[in-house]
């Protein structure tokens, strides 16, 4: 059954409702009869009728030489609204308008990807904050880009470093060696200070690595649905203007052109359409899901609470399918699902929904749960009739089971925090209480196994992503955060702050959920917890490239002591942090990778740090 939904939906929790009413929120009726709150402090999308558009099928791209071009185009997000400006990746005649084609590659078979920036302006130019790290006044007319293959085992010069800016009219070469097993990666923009706007506007695409076990073809050794029964789903949420265009702002409290600290949407999108519908055959489907939102963790489930199976996450397959009725998915995470529609009779429907409330800062100003993504309608076709596999690793024609967790030789504490101050715009977010321009970076050694204790002193979840490496989640431990902060007062930003969480535990460590127990590159770090991960940092011999190699910026993005030069004309930075120089001996070069929060507003200001994997 379908229902009309919008931001005017149920407020989750009496405390949030009390705050919203205190701020002047007003009530009105919704079709479901639920309590309806519309806050005057936030922007609201127009009413969209759900299930008007078919779920788009994303184009597929393959080959050992690929070109992707970032372009400005037009896209209609819903049947009842006109096309409006958006960004996309195009490859020749494939793609365009919004998002990018799905790239298919094979494990161990390298490709050369040429990335071109052909942007002529930006749909969200007015929302650029020129005080953020690295921002330049001319970026509104000439927006930079930097393509990152998220989850890729990629050499540093091809990783999409946020300071390796590709300006309009420029191109960059990316060599992807694919030295990893089959997995669902994704590519997206990663340019310093503007990532949230470039990604929100459409610079996103799926990237599927296949291997001899997970071939993507019917009859594959794992017995998985494939071809028309394997469907990538890019999940997003947005706020739209009254005309159906993308709105980069969420609240009237923050002036246009100022960083907001985390914007939550009120409308769900799948593959670029608002609340679409997919006609499904009777049988098993494989959905490759990526949370491509800017700020929201979702608790995903079906409207009838039916059982489905998680078979893999960020970096590949689990040992066996995990039966669930719901699972949490944070920005940057990917999950591989099997969903059985055999019992969905012709004409019957079921919806993919979310019931996780927004984080507290958004809830305080009246944001409510974004409840819906799409609907599936049963038809008369006979679909994939194979069953759910009993195992995915360790059997005949399968990869080995996941190895036991390794014993770390180094234990490293890192922190996720926000200074306690009242500001408008809000206070910046940090890792280790540092800004990106620091030279006090983590330097794990190649070939070592480390345990990272990620201490989150904020009340909200933050998905932490480490470039290049995969890791396993050891567990999450609740903390007596206030006592920790009193005992270890947080200094002024710019002074490293990584006090040990030992002695501040508020309960036993909770093991990862079975569906997140595989190899990961992004981990949800819940508020008021220490999240422990086990990371092995590979060696140059294992990788086939030097992870600590220096590499050059593009000629028009050479750093000159806090500014940026473009050709013969210097463009001095307005950002209050300046641009970083992690290789002090040569201002035109970069080194290493980054780790950051994947809440994109946080990443842009300034919850991202470089790190190096040293010999």
Estimate the mean pLDDT confidence: 89
Radius of gyration: 23 Å
CATH class descriptor name of the largest domain = Mainly Beta
End-to-end separation in angstroms reads 58 Å
Count of domain modules: 3
Classified in CATH, the superfamily of the largest domain is Cupredoxins -  blue copper proteins
How does the helix and strand content classify structurally?
A: mainly beta
Percentage of residues in strands: 25-35%
Helix content: under 10%
Count the E strands: 39
The shape is globular
The name CATH uses for the topology of the largest domain is: Immunoglobulin-like
List the helices and strands and how they pair.
Blueprint: H1 14-22, E1 26-27, E2 37-38, E3 60-61, E4 65-75, E5 84-91, E6 94-95, E7 102-106, E8 111-117, E9 147-150, E10 171-176, E11 183-189, H2 195-201, E12 204-210, E13 230-240, E14 246-247, E15 267-270, E16 273-274, E17 277-282, E18 284-291, E19 298-302, E20 308-313, E21 316-324, E22 326-329, E23 334-340, E24 349-354, H3 360-364, E25 372-382, E26 410-418, E27 429-431, E28 449-456, E29 462-466, E30 471-478, H4 481-487, E31 522-525, E32 529-536, H5 540-543, E33 550-552, E34 558-559, E35 564-566, E36 569-571, E37 589-591, E38 593-597, H6 600-604, E39 608-611
Parallel strand pairs: 3-7, 4-8, 7-12, 13-18, 17-25, 26-28
Antiparallel strand pairs: 1-2, 4-5, 5-6, 8-10, 9-11, 11-12, 13-14, 13-15, 15-16, 18-23, 19-22, 19-24, 20-21, 20-23, 24-25, 26-27, 28-32, 29-31, 29-38, 30-32, 33-37, 34-35, 35-36, 38-39
């Amino acid at each position: 059954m379908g229902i009309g939904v919008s931001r005017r939906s149920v407020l989750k929790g009496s405390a949030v409702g009390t705050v919203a009413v205190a701020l002047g929120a007003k009530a009105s009726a919704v079709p479901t009869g639920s309590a309806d709150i519309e806050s005057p402090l936030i922007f609201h999308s127009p009413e969209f009728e759900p299930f008007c558009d078919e779920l788009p099928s994303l184009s597929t791209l393959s080959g050992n030489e690929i070109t992707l071009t970032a372009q400005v185009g037009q896209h209609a997000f819903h049947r009842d609204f006109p096309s409006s400006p958006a960004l996309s990746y195009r490859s020749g005649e494939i793609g365009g308008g919004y998002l990018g084609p799905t790239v298919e590659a094979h494990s161990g078979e390298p490709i050369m990807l040429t990335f071109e920036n052909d942007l002529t302006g930006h749909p969200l130019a007015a929302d650029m904050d020129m005080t953020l790290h690295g921002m330049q006044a001319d970026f509104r007319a000439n927006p930079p880009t930097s393509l990152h293959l998220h989850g890729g085992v990629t050499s540093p010069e091809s990783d999409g470093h946020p300071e390796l800016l590709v300006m309009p009219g420029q191109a960059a070469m990316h060599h992807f060696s694919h030295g990893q097993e089959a997995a669902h990666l994704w590519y997206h923009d990663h340019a310093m200070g503007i990532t949230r706007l470039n990604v929100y506007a459409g610079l996103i695409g799926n990237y599927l690595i296949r291997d001899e076990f997970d071939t993507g073809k019917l009859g594959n050794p794992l017995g998985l649905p494939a071809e028309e029964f394997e469907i990538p789903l890019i999940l997003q949420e947005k706020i739209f203007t009254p005309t159906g265009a993308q709105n980069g702002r969420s609240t009237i409290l923050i002036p246009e052109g100022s960083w907001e600290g985390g914007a939550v949407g009120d409308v769900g999108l799948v593959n670029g359409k608002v609340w679409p519908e997919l006609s499904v055959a009777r049988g098993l489907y494989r959905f490759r899901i990526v949370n491509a939102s800017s700020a929201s963790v979702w608790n995903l489930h079906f409207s009838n609470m039916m059982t489905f199976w998680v078979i893999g996450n960020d970096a590949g397959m689990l040992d066996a399918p995990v039966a669930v009725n719901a699972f949490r998915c944070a920005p940057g995470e990917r999950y591989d699902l099997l969903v059985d529609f055999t019992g969905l009779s012709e004409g019957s429907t079921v919806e993919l929904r979310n019931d996780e409330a927004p984080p507290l800062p958004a809830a305080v100003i009246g944001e409510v749960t974004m409840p819906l993504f799409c609907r599936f309608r049963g038809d008369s076709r006979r679909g994939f009739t194979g069953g759910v596999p009993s195992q995915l690793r360790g059997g005949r024609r399968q990869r080995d089971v996941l190895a036991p967790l390794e014993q770390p030789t180094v234990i490293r504490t890192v922190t996720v925090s926000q200074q306690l101050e009242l500001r408008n715009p809000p206070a910046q977010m940090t890792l280790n209480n540092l800004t990106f321009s620091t030279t006090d970076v983590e330097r794990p050694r190649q070939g070592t196994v480390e345990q990272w204790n990620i201490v989150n002193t904020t009340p909200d979840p933050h998905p932490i992503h480490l470039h290049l490496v995969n890791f396993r989640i050891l567990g999450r431990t609740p903390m007596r955060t206030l006592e920790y902060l009193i005992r270890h007062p947080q200094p002024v930003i710019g002074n490293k702050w990584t006090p040990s969480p030992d002695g501040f535990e508020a309960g036993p460590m909770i093991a990862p959920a079975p569906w997140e127990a595989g190899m990961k590159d992004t981990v949800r770090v819940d508020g008021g917890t220490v999240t422990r991960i086990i990371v092995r940092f590979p060696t140059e011999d294992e990788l086939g490239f030097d992870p600590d190699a220096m590499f050059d910026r593009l000629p028009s993005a050479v750093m000159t002591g806090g500014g940026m030069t473009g050709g013969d004309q210097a463009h001095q930075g307005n950002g209050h942090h300046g641009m970083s120089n992690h290789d002090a001996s040569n201002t035109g070069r970069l080194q290493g990778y980054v780790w950051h929060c994947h809440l994109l507003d946080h990443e842009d200001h300034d919850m991202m740090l470089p790190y190096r994997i040293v010999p």
